[in-house]
Write a structure and sequence with these properties.
The protein is an alpha+beta fold. It is built from three helices and six strands. Strand 3 and strand 4 form a beta hairpin.
Length: about 110
């Protein structure tokens, strides 16, 4: 049976444009272009970057907690099926930013 980390890696890695690579501190990192969507640690949690407004909402609603080691601009969440939704939120934000950049600087 596949563990939750493997399930998250398979799901997030299947989204258009997402690359999966080893994270510099261990675990697995997900990127859309140069932008990191977040990463999972083998110890059983994920770290994801969000704006302060979104971070506050995620913490307030119990969907995430402040980053385990106090890194500003990031939240942490235990690995479970809802973690995929946090990665989806990070992915959608990155896609919007990518589309805006492409429109502002067409090649």
């Amino acid at each position: 049976m596949e563990d939750i980390g493997g399930r998250i890696e398979r799901e997030v890695g299947s989204w258009e444009g997402v690359t999966v690579q080893p994270h510099r501190l261990g675990g697995v990192e997900f990127r859309l272009g140069k932008r990191e969507l977040g990463h999972i640690h083998l110890e059983g949690w994920a770290d994801l970057p969000f704006t302060s407004r979104i971070r506050e909402m995620l913490v307030e609603t119990g969907r995430a907690e402040p980053h385990k080691f106090g890194v500003r601009g990031w939240v942490s969440a235990d690995l479970d099926d809802e973690t995929i939704e946090l990665f989806r939120l990070s992915y959608e934000r990155a896609r919007v930013a990518q589309n805006m950049r492409e429109r502002a600087d067409p090649i």
